[in-house]
Amino acid sequence: GQQVMQIPQYQHVQEGEDFTTYCNSSTTLSNIQWYKQRPGGHPVFLIQLVKSGEVKKQKRLTFQFGEAKKNSSLHITATQTTDVGTYFCAGPHSYNFNKFYFGSGTKLNVKP
Amino acid sequence: KAGVTQTPRYLIKTRGQQVTLSCSPISGHRSVSWYQQTPGQGLQFLFEYFSETQRNKGNFPGRFSGRQFSNSRSEMNVSTLELGDSALYLCASRSANSGNTIYFGEGSWLTVV
Questions:
Q1: pLDDT digits over A19-49, tens only?
Q2: Nearest chain B alpha carbon to A36
Q3: Residue A81 contacts residue A110 (beta carbons within 8 Å)
Q4: For residue A11, what are the contacts with CB-CB under 8 A and spacing of at least 6?
Q5: A44 vs A56: CA distance, rounded Å
Q6: Helix (H) or strand (E) holding B13
């Protein structure tokens, strides 16, 4: 069945190091959305990418959507302790928008 | 525009009881979905409602049910609660008019004792 995998599952970094999480779907997605969930909180929408090969930046965060619209990445430059949380990717099926898929999430811990 | 609102935020129930959680989506959003989140399990999809009809359903037992009203507000019910039902229950709404971006509520923390 349809799966959206994220790697790594966990990542521990020293403050100031970079961090990347990868999202891979078994099928083409209409768009890719990224969410951040702080410990004890709820997932908060970060960004949406729609076009094949699209790249968007939010300060230290860089998001990419693959050419085939099946994979995506989130890269954080020079992590800070405020980046701690779980990052999820998600997206609707490319032609069946009723189907929405979430990645398994990458839990990021940043040591000061 | 108000976000997704969930009530109650926290509740404690006893095994065997039942619970009803409520969700008000963002105005104009007709799709409401529910997720269960437990430590280490990620987001587990329960079901999605659109225009009062269940559109998708996850792999949860029949004890978990939901419904949606004509104003798009939704409720989910869990009957015969088990200890393993302790979790954060998240409601989310989306709209095709906004690229199907999903917006989550703050969740309802359920503890079953």
A1: 999 999 998 999 999 999 999 999 999 999 9
A2: B104
A3: yes
A4: A19, A21, A106, A107, A108, A109
A5: 17
A6: strand B10-13
